[in-house]
Amino acid sequence: MRTRFDQQLEKLHVELIKMGSLCEQAITLAASSLEVQEENTLHKVAALESEVDAKEREIEDICMRLLLQQQPVARDLRVISAALKLISDLERIGDQAADISDLTPYIVNSSIASKVQIHDMAKATIDMVTKSIDAFVKNDLELAEKVIESDDIVDDLFNKIREELILEIQGKNNDPRAAIDILMAAKYFERIGDHAVNVAEWVQYSITGVHKSNEHHIADR
Amino acid sequence: MRTRFDQQLEKLHVELIKMGSLCEQAITLAASSLEVQEENTLHKVAALESEVDAKEREIEDICMRLLLQQQPVARDLRVISAALKLISDLERIGDQAADISDLTPYIVNSSIASKVQIHDMAKATIDMVTKSIDAFVKNDLELAEKVIESDDIVDDLFNKIREELILEIQGKNNDPRAAIDILMAAKYFERIGDHAVNVAEWVQYSITGVHKSNEHHIADR
Fold this sequence. Notes:
Chain A is mainly alpha-helical.
């Protein structure tokens, strides 16, 4: 028989999946906005980002109620505090997507964006975000580790794009303004990957009770 | 007569001030590392960043104990949940400082760094971090608003540096690699300012019960 805690936990999982899907939509839209000028993309992403923020508040309330009403201990307490932490990573992912879409006006008219693998970065980071939330909902330690490993793919893509853009800048009739904004966009995607790794590390913590801090943020740079 | 809650809250304040001061040290060291090559700066900042992470765990435990043992409601509950949120902003500030120091090798040998106001950005962001924690400890709504307003100074400095670097790149015998890394450093400082604003917004929430989401992240870009 399911306890009240289990019911509230299921509600938490459902809302986390929704929050994750909002992030994925925001990343996808932001990425496409870098190549194709679309009406109101900036506003669409900003709207999604507000939805992400609202969802964070909602999930926070669920977690607080769980903490105060259910007095969880041990594993259950770790699950709730992990959820409280990972939603702030998801919220930042929404911010980063909005930051990327803000760069659109300067990038979309440049030929450079299509030359670099910005979409590969988007695809890779969306995959990381989806899997990291999956790992939490399914208590899948192996999947969490996969997410952490795949951060290297995103970091490698960033470094590759960075080198390509430096060549662009050094080349004839270069467009440093566009190149720099594309680099910023790539950096935001790399950050999204870092946040997905943070989520995966919170999953590890909720399952194992051990949190391997955020050192990878440095190690990979 | 002081209650057990007040005593634990005071402990929370003390640890938050320590965490803030660790962030300030990390920012200062990271900023200086961009202009003067020093032995082990990278490791010093990385060590400070680990201390920040450890302090976050410690404060998290204090907050969880407060929530579970004291069952706070209304204002008291907001104060604890605000603390739980703002420490993840402080933790990110530690990451950003480490990210800045990681850029040192590429920047320190370039003449460009000294030409831009990286140190003004460092000074401004350190000031924001200090004030935002002060505002929390002293329940100072006015000070929190000051922090939020001063984010414009940091954003303006970033845009100014950005334009200067674009000119550098376009100029003769340019060094795009160094220019791009300095731009990244400036971006990290701008992010630190954003996180200080987040802290200030959590202070507003803990006092007023209203949280004006993170829209400024977009509005300012």
